Each structure stands twice: as structure tokens, then as C-alpha cells.
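Task card 7
Instruction: Convert sequence to C-alpha cells.
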Amino acid sequence: MQSANVVLFQGDPAIAQLLAVHLRGQFHSVHVACSIEELRAVIAKHRAQVVILDVELSGLADVNQLHHEFPGIAIVCTHRLADEEMWTAALSAGADDVCPSSDTPAILRSALRNASIAHSAAA
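Output:
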């Protein structure tokens, strides 16, 4: 189990629940935020190392702001549709990875990989 904390902000409650269940076995703590304001508060309160963010729900400006506001945090964006332009824009805005929201194994792998990278950089 990673000693990292992860925060989810997803538009689809079923996806958020499924991800939380899978992440709980791999991370120290998993928190679900219901708004972008709550996301920021939870990141700060629990010193999260990873954010899994629905880029359609939050937008690219929020990705960029989170990237600057919380340096060193890994941002894994999710998106319902395979949209290369959106994915490229999310990566340019500061995301570390972008995964289809329906691909739970890919999201989990990305969160674990990016948590390790963030932890190594902080050490």
C-alpha cells in the first residue's frame, strides 16, 4: 500500500464510488470531493499526493490552477471520450496523465505510478 493520499473529483458518482473502492486498497487514504472548492480544501487538509480529476467537470483552467497552487501533486485527469485534443490540452495545463473515465485499471495504474514519482520528488 502507498503511504500517499488521493483525492477524487468526478462528475459521475458511480465512477467516483468505483474508483474509491479500487484505490482504498492501494493508498493510505482516499477522499471524494463534491466541488472544486472542496477539492482544494481536501488536498490541503490531507496533503494529498494525487488528484484524480474529471476534466469535463472542472475544466482546463482548474487543472492549470491546481498545478500551480499545489506544486508536486500528481494530477490524473479523466475524460468520458477519447479526445486527443482535450487530452493534449490537459497535459499542457499541468496534468501528469489523462485516462478514459471508464478505464478503472488504467486510472489506478496511473495514480500509483504518479504517486511514486511525486513521493520520490518530495524525498
